[in-house]
C-alpha cells in the first residue's frame, strides 16, 4: 500500500445517499398493500406539492450528519435533492453524483448506473452507498474496482432507513477509523 493510498483510506468516508426508498419509503402504516407505490415515485411531480415528501422523516438528517461522513446525493432527484429534500431534513447543500454519459449497455448486466460513477468519485477513499437497489453485480464491481474500504448498504424500501440501518452504518464507520 503506497503512502498516498494510506492517506486516502484515512480520510473521512463518503456516504452516497439515495432518496427514493431510503429516505422516502414506499411502505405505509397500512401495510404492504401500498407496494406499488414506487411507480408513483418516478412519475409524480417533484416539487413542494409532491405528497411523497410527507414521507421524509425530518430527524433523519441529523442522524446522517452524526455519522461524520461526507454526504453526497446519489439519486435521480439530482439537484432537486438539494432544493426540495435537504431543507426538510435540515441538511446543507450537498454535492450530487452525476449520471455517467455511458449507457447501461456499456457495463455488465445487472450493474447499477450509480456504481461505476460512485467508485470513480471515491477515488480510493472509503465510502458507504445507501440504496434500495444494490445487487450482486454492484458488489462484484466495487470489490474489483475500488481499492479502499466500502460498505454497500441496502435498505428495505418499504421501511426506509431504520434504527438497525443506522447501527450498521455507525459500526462500519467506527471499524475503519484509524486508531
Ligand atoms: Mg432508490
TrEMBL record:
Which protein are we looking at? Answer: HAD domain-containing protein
Question: Which domain of life does the protein's organism represent?
Answer: Bacteria
Stretches of Low complexity bias are at 27-45
Annotated Pfam families? HAD_SAK_2
Q: Where is this region: Disordered?
A: 27-51
